[in-house]
Amino acid sequence: MEQQANIVLLGAPGAGKGTQAAFLVQRLVIPHVSTGDMLRAARAAGTELGRKAAQYMDAGELVPDDIIVGVALERLAQPDCAQGFLLDGFPRTLPQAEALTEALGQAGRRIALALNLDADEAEIVRRLSSRRVCRGCGKIFSLAKKQVQEGGACPECGGEVYQREDDQPEVIRERLAVYRRQTEPLIGYYRQQGVLRMVASIGSPDEVNDAVQAVLKETF
Ligand code: AMP
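Above: the input record for the complex with adenosine monophosphate. Below: its predicted structure, written as tokens.
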């Protein structure tokens, strides 16, 4: 059977998941399923899910598994995910990973690749504090790389560029602690399943993407 592009993107906050995800979904023509983006959209729309998630997100904590697993699995059951998907920000805990394996298994499917973006912690803090996001098109920019100016408009669509609430320094520290405690164990989980590949997130997004492309060539 031809291997389906069912991919999990792993890595600490700020390791470059969002940026690499954008490259990957374009290249493989699969949907980008980001639970963080889904929660931010739910908040902006003022839904019950958005209201429930807000307190956890602003504190840099994880939304409880029973809430997020339902959200993610419902999304993966949509027809556009039938031939493959790129999961970004999910799973983030072992119970989430187990629920995903179980749900895919029931449909005779499995994760084909868990790609871990490995970044240095000091670099992560630098990247996240400098990260700005467009409210209009969702594109990510760096203040440090002068891709956008503080208070300036999005160079792509003219939308408002803002700093995520959870990219403030105290929240970044909490998110990194949560990552180490709850998400890092997933590296071992997917290694055991024989689908883990590591890519060092060093250098420019294009350089990291070259390494990611090399992994894709070997896998699919
Ligand atoms: P992200 O954009 O992936 O960094 O996610 C932003 C925030 O949304 C996280 O800090 C969590 O509060 C929440 N979140 C996103 N995905 C998950 C998940 N799989 N499990 C729990 N919380 C999540």
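Notes for the reader.
The two ends are 12 Å apart (CA to CA).
Residues 13, 35-36, 39, 56-57, 60-63, 68, 89-90, 92, 96, 166, 175 surround adenosine monophosphate (CB under 6 Å).
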